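Extended Data, panel c. Modelled sequence:
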Amino acid sequence: MSVAALIALLDHASVLVFALTGALVASRGQLDVVGFIFFATLTGIGGGTLRDLVLGRAPVFWVGRPELLLLTTGAAIAVFFNAHRLESRYRAILWLDAFALAVAVPAGVGVALEAGVSPVVTVLMGVMTGTFGGLMRDVVGNEVPLVLKQGELYVTAAFGGAVAALLLLGLGAGRGWALIGCAAMVLLLRAGSMSFGWRLPVYKARPPRN
């Protein structure tokens, strides 16, 4: 598989899985089917849209591939008729979001590498692609954004995966393997945070000094 094909596959996978999480948030709000489609589409394409606008890509990825909108619509309708079967929709959102993050970050890194931007911007594009769709979903859905959960590895997982991709490239790995390594690192950090309580230190206020 070529690198371009891998990036397109990652984009499709991230859109689909993020769309499922958006539709599940809509189910928690007991919205109608149009609300499901809105949340699924907003979440699925949000991060990638912002990435492409910042990088000046034309057209934006889903404009050139309108089948992605059919993908988000199909995901929304599937969740609309099946969400009630899940024992814990919030738990499903957490794990689906983790998998979506693990494919969206390397998609963003891959697009940035193709654009030839600096390493700092490449890392930022990976983080942006992975986090902004979910952030939009949670803010519009009046949920506490996962990116702001106290001490959890979320943005850190995205950042770690993007940096891992650049390190692998620096060590001589092919671009495809670097993107796969990026996905693995993101999933490892996010799953470790969810399952084993991996955390970053949080700020604790102290009394002022005299």
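The mean pLDDT is 93. This feature is highlighted in the accompanying rendering.
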